[in-house]
Amino acid sequence: MLIALALAAADPVPPTPPAEASVEAAVQVVRDYYSAVSRHDYHAAYRLWHGRQSYAWFRRGYTRTARVAVTPIPPFDAEGAAGSIYAEIRVKVDAVLCSGARQHFVGSYTLRRVNDVDGSTAAQRRWHIESAHLKPVPASR
């Protein structure tokens, strides 16, 4: 037990580089997500989620989507809670279906990363999508 404690104290978690911990990095995760969806790289898009649904279910959600684009809407903000940092990223999403029909959505994504605490993994300290809240809106004129 003492050896394990000594090893843990001797090998603390390295701090996450500021650029990777920033709210701008969280915004980039949302951009990367939609870029992957637009390329039909659903595995890459799925890996950016916290994983509350199966890959098959996730993939089915995009079967009719030809391409999609996201516009993050500032200001961007992050705040801490219980050992984690959460960022709320407001977005506008424009999608084109395989049929050529267009869809438009507004809403937000909640992203989370674990603070640089002992015992946390590198994967936990990276931003990932925790939830999405989007609603359809009519096309702009």
Briefly characterize the structure.
With 141 residues, the chain is of the alpha+beta class. The chain has helices spanning 2-10, 18-21, 23-38, 42-47, 55-60; strands spanning 65-81, 84-97, 102-114, 128-136.
CATH class: Alpha Beta
- For the record, the CATH architecture stands as Roll
The helix content is: 25-40%
Number of strands: 4
Structural class: alpha+beta
Please indicate the count of domains: 1
> Any idea what the radius of gyration is?
18 Å
Major sheet attributes: 4 strands, antiparallel
Estimate the global geometry from the Cα principal axes: globular
Structural write-up:
With 141 residues, the chain is of the alpha+beta class. It has a single domain, classed as Roll (Nuclear Transport Factor 2, Chain: A), CATH 3.10.450.50. It has five helices and four strands; from the N terminus they run H-H-H-H-H-E-E-E-E. It has a four-stranded antiparallel beta sheet with strand order 1-2-3-4, covered by helices on one side. Strand 1 and strand 2 form a beta hairpin. 14% of the residues are buried. The mean pLDDT is 90.
